[in-house]
């Protein structure tokens, strides 16, 4: 290898010697040929691995290089190549132990630094290209590596005669300037930092020598880390922290310096006011740092690191640290945070006395990072307490400006102190102060940011509340992880702060609660908070309740790293609960009653909406804390939950649903239905009390929600309440909004009744079972579809009483109109078009004088065939009666709602067909009057209602339908322009159905009227004249397709053809 290498480099060395040994007057420092020879030699050397060549070959190669260096000047490119050649010689020949003589090293180091930068200020170097700087750093780094491998390295830079201290300072300056002046060259910076690390950590190692170069290093690194407008590469930051940390530890090591702390300052010159302002704030003023210098003086040595030096430099170090530590913390880079915590911890451990002025800064840094890798904070508990108290005093500022890190560090500090000390007096003081600050957070931020506005919420009506209620399964999937563990909703309970800030504040209060519980002070604090806020505003009471509740919620997992500090999955319910739970529940009840009374007749505002959400949230948390024991308290708070399920605020309803799910999970296996059904008696009592006390505005919506959730079973328990509602209709029929809510409730009751007793979506089956006489099409006379049905019909006709069919011609106009009277008496005579009688049902009075045969006959006639029980059927009849009477009410929404309810009820009433007919006779005229109104919305609803009534009443309404058409001809506003012209102009007949375009509202009403007419024609087409049918069809053709009309029967098909052709 050696001979091969010699043969490779020999020609290049010979060629280089031709230029190196030229006389000065003939030497061209910028010669291109010289540059080529240098490049050629460098190319040969670059092929070999580190340490692979001998020192003899290095001496041979160095001969022409040394001659070149004796010339007066060299060009920049030539100098760069010579530095690169020296790098290769250091790498190949002088890198192992014993190969690099000390004398050569002392000559070579100044030479290298001079070649890199001939001036002390490095002005020329700063303007050189990055490639040159890379070569310079690489060469200095290799020199330090080679020097490190030599046995004399530890004395190489000692302050003795002949030591290259000047060159050392120059070399360090070169590297520092390269680091500082090249912020975008992170690889170059890292290489230079590592070169300095080898020099400081592996070669010099002596704090006394390093103390000379310390100020320049600290200043440079502070500038690098604080460069304005530049984000320093994270790897550069890590390297700087590592190097600066080791440098400070060596220079300020307490053990080597033999530093002592004196508690009292006796000389004013020892007091530096500026450097001790922070110490004064945290109780450290008066501490004096002294270095024992007499020992060195006795040995006849002059020491650089004296007490004066320490006081001067430690202040500069503190200023430098204060400049870049906050900036590094704000970067929120995990690697940097860990490195910074390690940096501070090592200084706090090894330089505690020397850098005593930085103690507060170090503890604050560890708190802000929420890291204590060496568990040192406990050794500085007094400083920690003072910092904590100062942060508590600034808590409002932290919240106002969303300083999340500071609030996180506050909880970290509380955890540390609570683990260290037992029953400290200061803890109670700081707890009271912190809770007071938290209680006033919303008020402070509202007023400081001028956010105090009485905004009204957008209230929703009862239809939206009931129909828009989210399914409980959806609520559960969005808010629950499992039955036992809830996640808070995305809704904020402290509206003035962000959700993230709210969760952090919540975690602090949870931690405080744990500490107070350990000190047996929790009940005292909670009772004090709740009792102090009796006369406070709503917002303040809300925060008091929220704070008190969160104090009871314990977070068992103390996360010392705080990585998941904002993660709210760590919530764990308490195993046991405090008696404070009862105080909070009682406060919730009183607070809710206060809000309820204040909202009577008023629109809910944001403050009260948020207060109700906090009340519900508190009940949720307390139910989870108390678990099964909450069942004994449930009856007092169930109505609050159910009442808010019917709130006009969507936000309140969501919290109420979460609350009901929580209680159901704890007590009723997750079933909200069971929660309501098992406590329905208490709900009945609560609602009855409110109705009797005149609080009637919200009760109907509450009943709607209860019925919607638990089904019709609950209504059976609310019979007395419904009877009270009927009485209220008698008394308050002039209040349209109240009546509207009641009929919306009736709609929900009917829907749930239908769901309970009937097959949804198959009402035609009811018609077929209970009213075989209805003719649905002229193609199927009497509804018969096959020969078996025809034979059965003939058999039934032979054995039946023909005179039993009902007619409306002989209807008793003096029949009872009161429903109680109706159900307590016998109705014997009922009209029909066939003038026959049918005995009424529901005869509850027994005729003791009747014979057994009559009783048996009566039972047969009164046989109950409807799947709907009689008591539920009676409720329908009562609703129908009040609806009929209120159809004349001037409120348009109420009329439409009543018609909607009647339309829904008719198919259900038809299940007991003999009771439908008298009701048809009773309500017919009222609905017909609505059809001829000028308001098209009412016309539409009433026409749909009449269509249903005709469909299920059958031929009972034949005569009434004929009268209806006459009334429409005379009084209908909507049909006035659609009447048929009796002229024989066939051209006009062809244009029917095409020449008129109606507005949507008009068209919808006309469609409903047309469908109603077609339904009536299907019943009466054999009883009325073709002319009348033609007039009806003519009106229908304007809005309905001719195919749809013609498909109803052959008669209609013929009439449609005659009109359009």
UniProtKB/TrEMBL annotation:
<dbReference type="InterPro" id="IPR057567">
    <property type="entry name" value="TPR_TTI1_C"/>
</dbReference>
<dbReference type="InterPro" id="IPR016441">
    <property type="entry name" value="Tti1"/>
</dbReference>
<dbReference type="Pfam" id="PF21547">
    <property type="entry name" value="TTI1"/>
</dbReference>
<feature type="domain" description="TTI1 C-terminal TPR">
    <location>
        <begin position="791"/>
        <end position="963"/>
    </location>
</feature>
<feature type="region of interest" description="Disordered">
    <location>
        <begin position="822"/>
        <end position="865"/>
    </location>
</feature>
<dbReference type="InterPro" id="IPR059075">
    <property type="entry name" value="TPR_TTI1_2nd_yeast"/>
</dbReference>
<dbReference type="Pfam" id="PF24173">
    <property type="entry name" value="TPR_TTI1_N"/>
</dbReference>
<feature type="domain" description="TTI1 N-terminal TPR">
    <location>
        <begin position="6"/>
        <end position="369"/>
    </location>
</feature>
<dbReference type="InterPro" id="IPR057566">
    <property type="entry name" value="TPR_TTI1_N"/>
</dbReference>
<dbReference type="InterPro" id="IPR049362">
    <property type="entry name" value="TTI1_rpt"/>
</dbReference>
<dbReference type="InterPro" id="IPR016024">
    <property type="entry name" value="ARM-type_fold"/>
</dbReference>
<feature type="domain" description="TEL2-interacting protein 1 second TPR">
    <location>
        <begin position="377"/>
        <end position="636"/>
    </location>
</feature>
<dbReference type="GO" id="GO:0005737">
    <property type="term" value="C:cytoplasm"/>
</dbReference>
<dbReference type="Pfam" id="PF26245">
    <property type="entry name" value="TPR_TTI1_2nd_yeast"/>
</dbReference>
<protein>
    <recommendedName>
        <fullName>TEL2-interacting protein 1</fullName>
    </recommendedName>
</protein>
<dbReference type="GO" id="GO:0110078">
    <property type="term" value="C:TTT Hsp90 cochaperone complex"/>
</dbReference>
<feature type="compositionally biased region" description="Acidic residues">
    <location>
        <begin position="831"/>
        <end position="840"/>
    </location>
</feature>
<feature type="compositionally biased region" description="Basic and acidic residues">
    <location>
        <begin position="841"/>
        <end position="851"/>
    </location>
</feature>
<dbReference type="Pfam" id="PF24181">
    <property type="entry name" value="TPR_TTI1_C"/>
</dbReference>
<dbReference type="InterPro" id="IPR052587">
    <property type="entry name" value="TELO2-interacting_protein_1"/>
</dbReference>
């Amino acid at each position: 290898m050696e001979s091969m290498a010699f043969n490779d480099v020999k020609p290049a060395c010979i060629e280089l010697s031709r230029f190196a040994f030229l006389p000065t007057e003939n030497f061209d420092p910028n010669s291109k040929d010289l540059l080529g020879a240098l490049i050629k030699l460098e190319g040969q050397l670059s092929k070999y691995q580190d340490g692979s060549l001998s020192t003899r070959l290095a001496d041979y190669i160095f001969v022409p290089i040394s001659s070149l260096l004796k010339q007066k000047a060299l060009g920049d490119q030539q100098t760069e190549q010579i530095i690169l050649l020296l790098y290769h010689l250091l790498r190949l020949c002088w890198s192992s132990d014993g190969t690099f003589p000390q004398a050569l090293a002392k000559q070579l180091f100044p030479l290298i630094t001079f070649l890199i930068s001939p001036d002390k200020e490095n002005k020329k170097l700063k303007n050189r290209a990055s490639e040159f700087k890379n070569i310079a750093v690489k060469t200095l780094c290799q020199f330090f590596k080679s020097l490190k491998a030599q046995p004399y390295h530890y004395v190489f830079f000692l302050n003795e005669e002949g030591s290259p201290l000047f060159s050392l300072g120059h070399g360090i300056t070169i590297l520092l300037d390269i680091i500082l002046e090249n912020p975008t060259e992170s690889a170059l910076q890292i290489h230079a930092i590592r070169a300095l690390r080898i020099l400081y950590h592996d070669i010099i190692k002596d704090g006394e020598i390093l103390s000379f170069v310390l100020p320049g290093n600290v200043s440079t690194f502070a500038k690098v880390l604080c460069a304005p407008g530049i984000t320093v590469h994270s790897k550069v930051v890590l390297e700087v922290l590592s190097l600066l940390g080791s440098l400070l530890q060596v220079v300020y090591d307490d053990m080597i310096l033999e530093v002592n702390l004196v508690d009292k300052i006796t000389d004013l010159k020892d007091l530096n006011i500026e450097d001790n302002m922070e110490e004064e704030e945290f109780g450290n003023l008066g501490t004096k740092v002294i270095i024992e210098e007499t020992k060195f003086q006795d040995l006849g040595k002059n020491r650089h690191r004296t007490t004066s030096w320490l006081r001067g430099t430690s202040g500069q170090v503190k200023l430098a640290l204060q400049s870049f530590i906050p900036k590094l913390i704000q970067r929120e880079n995990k690697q940097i945070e860990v490195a910074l915590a390690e940096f501070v911890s090592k200084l706090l451990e090894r330089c505690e006395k020397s850098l005593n002025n930085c103690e507060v800064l170090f503890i604050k840094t560890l708190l802000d990072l929420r890291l204590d890798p060496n568990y040192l904070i406990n050794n500085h508990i007094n400083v920690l307490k003072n910092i904590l108290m100062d942060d508590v005093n600034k808590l409002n500022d932290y919240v106002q400006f969303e300083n999340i890190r500071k609030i996180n560090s506050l909880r970290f500090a509380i955890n540390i102190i609570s683990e260290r000390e037992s029953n400290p007096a200061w803890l109670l003081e700081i707890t009271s102060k912190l809770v007071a600050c938290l209680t006033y957070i919303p008020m402070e931020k509202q007023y400081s940011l001028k956010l105090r506005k009485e905004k009204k919420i957008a209230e929703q009506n009862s239809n939206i509340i009931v129909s828009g209620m989210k399914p409980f399964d959806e609520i559960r999937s969005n808010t629950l992880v499992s039955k036992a563990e809830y996640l808070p909703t995305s809704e904020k309970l402290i509206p003035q702060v962000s959700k993230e800030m709210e969760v952090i504040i919540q975690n602090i209060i949870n931690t405080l609660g744990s500490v107070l519980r350990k000190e047996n002070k929790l009940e005292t604090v909670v009772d004090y908070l709740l009792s102090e806020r009796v006369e406070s505003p709503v917002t303040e009471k809300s925060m008091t309740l929220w704070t008190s509740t969160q104090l009871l919620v314990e977070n068992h997992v103390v996360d010392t790293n705080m990585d998941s500090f904002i993660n709210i999955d760590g919530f764990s319910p308490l195993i046991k609960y405090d008696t404070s739970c009862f105080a909070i529940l009682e406060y919730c009840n009183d607070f809710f009653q206060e809000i309820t009374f204040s909202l009577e007749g008023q629109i809910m505002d944001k403050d009260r909406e948020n207060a109700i959400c906090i009340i519900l949230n508190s009940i949720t948390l307390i139910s989870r804390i108390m678990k099964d024991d909450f069942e004994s308290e449930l009856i007092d708070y169930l109505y609050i939950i159910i009442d808010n399920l019917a709130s006009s605020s969507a936000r309140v309803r969501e919290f109420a649903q979460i609350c009901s799910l929580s209680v159901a999970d704890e007590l009723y296996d997750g079933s909200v239905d069971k929660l309501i059904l098992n406590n329905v008696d208490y709900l009945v009592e609560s609602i009855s009390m409110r109705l009797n006390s005149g609080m009637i505005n919200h009760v109907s919506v509450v009943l709607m929600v209860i019925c919607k959730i638990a089904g019709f079973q609950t209504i059976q328990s609310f019979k007395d309440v419904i009877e009270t509602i009927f009485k209220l209709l008698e008394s308050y029929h002039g209040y349209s909004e109240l009546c509207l809510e009641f009929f919306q409730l009736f709609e929900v009751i009917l829907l749930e009744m239908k769901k309970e007793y009937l097959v949804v979506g198959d009402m035609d089956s009811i018609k077929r079972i209970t009213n075989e006489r209805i003719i649905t099409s002229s193609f199927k006379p009497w509804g018969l579809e096959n020969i078996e049905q025809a034979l059965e019909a003939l058999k039934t006709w032979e054995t039946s009483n023909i005179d039993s069919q009902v007619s409306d011609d002989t209807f008793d106009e003096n029949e009872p109109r009161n429903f109680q009277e109706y159900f307590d008496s016998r109705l014997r005579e009922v009209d029909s078009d066939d003038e026959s009688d049918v005995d009424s049902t529901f005869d509850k009075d027994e005729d003791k004088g009747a014979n057994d045969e009559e009783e048996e006959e009566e039972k047969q006639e009164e046989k109950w065939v409807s799947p709907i029980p009689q008591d539920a059927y009676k409720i329908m009849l009562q609703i129908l009666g009040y609806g009929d009477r209120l159809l004349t009410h001037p409120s348009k929404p109420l009329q439409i709602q009543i018609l909607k309810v009647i339309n829904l009820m008719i198919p259900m009433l038809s299940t007991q067909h003999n009771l439908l007919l008298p009701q048809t006779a009773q309500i017919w005229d009222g609905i017909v009057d609505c059809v001829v109104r000028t308001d098209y919305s009412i016309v539409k609803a009433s026409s749909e209602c009449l269509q249903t009534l005709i469909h299920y009443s059958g031929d009972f309404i034949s005569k009434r339908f004929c009268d209806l058409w006459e009334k429409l001809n005379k009084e209908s506003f909507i049909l006035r322009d659609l009447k048929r012209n009796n002229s024989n102009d066939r051209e006009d007949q062809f244009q029917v159905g095409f020449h008129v375009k109606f507005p949507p509202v008009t068209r919808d009403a006309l469609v409903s009227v047309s469908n109603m007419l077609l339904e009536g024609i299907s019943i009466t087409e054999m009883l009325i004249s073709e002319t009348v049918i033609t007039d009806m069809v003519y009106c229908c053709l304007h809005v309905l397709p001719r195919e749809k009309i013609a498909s109803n029967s052959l008669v209609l098909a013929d009439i449609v053809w005659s009109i359009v052709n």
